[in-house]
Amino acid sequence: MAEKIKPHIMIVEGRYYERIQDHLLEGAVKMLDELGASHETYSVPGAFEIPAAIAFAAKPDGVTASGHQYDGFIALGCVIRGETSHYEHICGEVSRGLMDLSLRHSLAIGFGLLTCENREQALVRAAVNRGNKGGDAARTCIRMYEHKRFFQMGS
Q1: What CATH number has the domain bearing residue 85?
Q2: From CA 70, how far away is CA 38, in angstroms rounded?
Q3: Please, which pLDDT band fits residue 119 given cuts at 50, 70 and 90?
Q4: Which domain, by its residues, includes 124?
Q5: How many separate domains does the chain show?
Q6: In angstroms, rounded to a whole number, what is the distance separating the alpha carbons of residues 80 and 97?
Q7: pLDDT range class, residue 155, cuts 50, 70, 90
Q8: Annotated catalytic residue, options 8, 23, 68, 86
Q9: Which of 17, 32, 55, 98 would you call most buried, defined as having the most Cβ atoms within 10 angstroms of its Cβ?
Q10: Is residue 1 a part of any domain in this protein?
Q11: Distance of alpha carbon 153 from alpha carbon 137, whole angstroms
Q12: Residues 56-113: pLDDT tens digits?
């Protein structure tokens, strides 16, 4: 049985909706702490920038210019439908970008992008004592990290 290694996770958060993001981040951090993972948070302006930030951090050798190595990534953000087609474009491109990164570079990514009709719906999904989608994304990231290690270690 492979030895248990404490994963180091990068949380990338799009801070466009501050209050909603605070809830998502709280849930993710709480779950990572419960699961015994260390973490760092990196903030970008909005959801659209999340895949690029992960790509910047996911160097081929796993070590960033600052010397950090990440075992997984959590993408946290929120997109709320408006009156134009902007919502569809952002949701689709962020989702595609994250999936492309995951598949192309074998990254363990927890998907915590809320795609909601309004702020109230987003707050319900983000709140730690309600939907806790930040916690769900953290749990998923750790689980995918475990799957990746399983296949890399061969057992």
Answers
A1: 3.40.50.960
A2: 10
A3: very high
A4: 8-153
A5: 1
A6: 19
A7: low
A8: 86
A9: 32
A10: no
A11: 24
A12: 998 765 555 566 789 999 999 999 998 778 888 999 999 999 999 999 999 999 999 9
